[in-house]
């Protein structure tokens, strides 16, 4: 079964090389067509291109030097010299391809193990290949099975569980204090990538009311405009504090900006409704004693990172489990695939032997013209019975044997013994 | 005779359903796919139905409200608790609440199982009046609301502890948000308090008019305990309305108030002596 993978990923090549080899989704269809035309007929090919990997999964006829053919294809599509690509490419064959694809689709080969995007990306690549008519029966079966494996791994391991980004951890805590974010006020103090990410996550979960404050009023206005919020001057911070249900703080201040007394006052004014503080500033903006107050839930960057690390470790543990599952699924797939091959082999075996029968029968009958119709029939039936009886045991063995790994050998043995070709016709035409 | 067999059947069937629902509720915490929350609720509802018919049967047979001894009190208490929980669930579906309450209900039903009396003993005349029935019915409904409120307060404290510990543990994820738990607590106390108030009023009317508790019924331990309980919940209400305390302290207060509910319900019967005693 001539399955091949040729590719680069975030481990085999730096981003500069990956950039050159990447294929955008607009160009994907052209690339697939190009590959299809450049490769021998009856080849099947699917291309996966994400920011972390570019892979060619191909099913090529026997006797083709796959590594060369695919590398040449890729190089000429991108108009790059071969030598530039060669050191970074990896190549797998046969069983390794199945295992690799299962791993990739289940996010076990990703930079962040357990990420959810890759499955969609692989599905998209598969759909494009279907549309461009560049994939065929073999790759279709393989890809569809890989989606099933990915789903099974996701649901029976905890590989995708647990947040691994600081912003989503923060929002998780927020949602356990407040059920409904749509009527809560988010106070963004200071600015920064991380704090805006938290804000975006919160808004994605329904938060609408934003107040922004910054030492530079212009910056506050800018952010307020961006998030449809309200800008307030930095010196009015303490006056507006009681309005904050969720405070995201990341000023550049080298000292604490907020102390327990500020919050005691604020809590009193807001009738003791709770406040969540996400203090991502380094050094911290909010004095740690604030977290001891009743009704305040304070999370600094270390707290959040601790949770992320814990979840990462959990995912790593699940990785072992998942890899075992991939191994099992690969074996299952290989024998299933070989089993698919049993059908044609059985058919070819039958055809081949019956062909011999017919030829010999005609030879004998032509030498006995004096036979009656009934006698001719009896002889014909005799030859049929003999051949069918001979075929019966091997056919059964092929069918049942094909289901396990032993079956792989039986199929190859039968093909060798009876000279059956891959396509199925008998290569023994000798009389 | 037939009626008695029916009663036995209905009661035990109800307990069996409660048992299953409690097991399912616990299971749904650990293996939510195998033990679904919906199944737990369904079995609790079936248990409720069985016991409803059980009580109705006794009511029809005896001609008076069948909450006159400890067994019936416990059984009715469990029934009311589960009924209140199922009603609350329609507004606030909280699987974790089921995991707390239903096993608790199972515990109480188990106790009542051992106290089961197949024939409702003939109650003294004093326990047959309308005021008495109203008093008892309202009191138990109040108790039930307070119980579910207690469960939500307990869960509030657990969740608070998890959030302050800053770890996204399984417990944190399983429990609802503080906002929801606080709202449920408020809702239940808002329902329970008026019921309990009316129960006390009905009780006073009955005690005064029937002399069942004797001329000094104000000194009866259960009566005193009920009043203290009432005061605690009144204080809870007042504190909430004037927003003097953060959620955590309100949860603590709810638990203290509930401790008094338990004492009023069971403690006064079992520990102290007094005219309420014959409700055994």
Portion in beta strands of chain B: under 5%
Q: Which term fits the overall shape of chain A? A: elongated
Quaternary organisation of the protein chains: heterodimer
Mean pLDDT of chain A: 88
Q: Describe the global form of chain B.
A: flat
How many individual β-strands of chain A? 10
Structure write-up:
The complex is a heterodimer of chains A (about 425) and B (about 280). With about 425 residues, chain A is α/β, with parallel strands linked by helices. Chain A has 15 helices and ten strands. In chain A, helix 5 packs across helix 7, helix 7 packs antiparallel against helix 13 (about 300-365) and helix 14 (about 375-400) packs antiparallel against helix 15 (about 405-420). Chain A is elongated. The model of chain A is unreliable at about 425-430 (pLDDT under 50). Chain B contains nine helices and no strands. The model of chain B has no long low-confidence stretch (mean pLDDT about 85). The interface of A and B includes residues 173, 176, 178, 299 and 310 of A.
Short description:
Chain A is α/β, with parallel strands linked by helices. Chain A has helices at residues 15-21, 28-38, 66-78, 82-85, 95-105, 117-131, 137-156, 166-177, 193-204, 217-226, 237-240, 260-269, 301-367, 373-401, 405-418, and strands at residues 3-9, 44-49, 53-59, 90-93, 185-190, 209-214, 230-233, 246-250, 275-279, 296-300.
